[in-house]
Amino acid sequence: MTHQRTLAWHETMELHELIAAQSVGLVKVKKSLRKISDPQLRQLYSTTARALEQNLRELLPFLPKAPAFHREEERADHYFDAGDLLVLAKTSVRNYAIAITETATPALRKVLVKQINAAIRLHEQVFYYMYSRGLYPAYNLAELLKADAMHAQKAIAMR
């Protein structure tokens, strides 16, 4: 087996999705942790934050192996808030698609189809919001990966 010096395009895109989603999730968990008073729930959030930080630390070294990767300076912080909505919409579309394939009841299928279409529209709106503000450079792989690295580092560094 030969070892490639770069990642393949398809694995680069999956790496992007994992880093982006986990960076947004880490920021959300850390913000929520500040508000939690229940010790057991607080411990669960702390454990989750440490796990996400470790995941990102393990994934980030692969970014320089991605095609056309170069780092750049920071962008607006509201990436995380918009990114949270984007991940929610994307996850909803996937979850609805799975649920629809398991649905036997026509009335339920009709509701799920209506709701998946709404989730698709939300994803489109959030994506174009982020894209139009330079928060999600979807058509420029190098810029996309630079942003992933920067956002992951910012999420790890957050206290």
Automatic annotation (TrEMBL):
Keywords: Capsid protein, Sporulation, Virion. It is found in: Spore coat. Signal peptide: none annotated. Pfam families: Coat_F. It comes from the Bacteria. GO terms for biological process: sporulation resulting in formation of a cellular spore. PANTHER family: SPORE COAT PROTEIN F-LIKE PROTEIN YHCQ. Belongs to the CotF family. This is Spore coat protein CotF. It comes from Bacillus sonorensis L12. The lineage of its organism: Bacteria, Bacillati, Bacillota, Bacilli, Bacillales.
